[in-house]
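Q: Given only this backbone (142 positions), what sequence would you predict?
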């Protein structure tokens, strides 16, 4: 079962990476063009976003009709709804980072295969940020 789950995960990841490449989400210039609503706005990624929302909505609709997942014991659906300062701060940092360099974590990880220095630098900075968060979160719980 673990090999099957890993294989399905690998296939899903490859499909996701292919979709990111096909849609242009790994191209920082295209992403920045989409975010530049006051300048030379490129609306093409709005279709990518609409497609992603549609697929997600379909997935949630299917989950609501299923008793349990095919390859797991239970569904892992987040139920935490409160809007906290940490959530707002994290969303703001995510948006600022995306707007500055035109990359977000998923496309950046997929883009590592291209070997672009900008992508490698972004992923390195992201990993350092994750480690800093882990360290500061762990020390604040003590």
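A: Predicted residues:
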């Amino acid at each position: 079962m673990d090999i099957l789950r890993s294989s399905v995960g690998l296939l899903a990841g490859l499909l996701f990476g292919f979709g990111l490449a096909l849609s242009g989400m790994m191209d920082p210039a295209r992403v920045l063009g989409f975010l530049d609503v006051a300048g030379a706005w490129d609306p093409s990624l709005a279709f990518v976003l609409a497609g992603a929302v549609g697929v997600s909505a379909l997935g949630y609709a299917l989950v609501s009709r299923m008793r349990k997942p095919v390859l797991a014991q239970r569904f892992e659906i987040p139920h935490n709804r409160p809007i906290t300062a940490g959530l707002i701060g994290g969303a703001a940092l995510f948006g600022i980072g995306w707007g500055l360099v035109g990359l977000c974590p998923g496309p950046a990880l997929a883009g590592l295969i291209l070997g672009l220095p900008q992508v490698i630098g972004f992923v390195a900075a992201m990993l350092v940020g994750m480690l800093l968060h882990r360290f500061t979160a762990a020390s604040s719980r003590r």
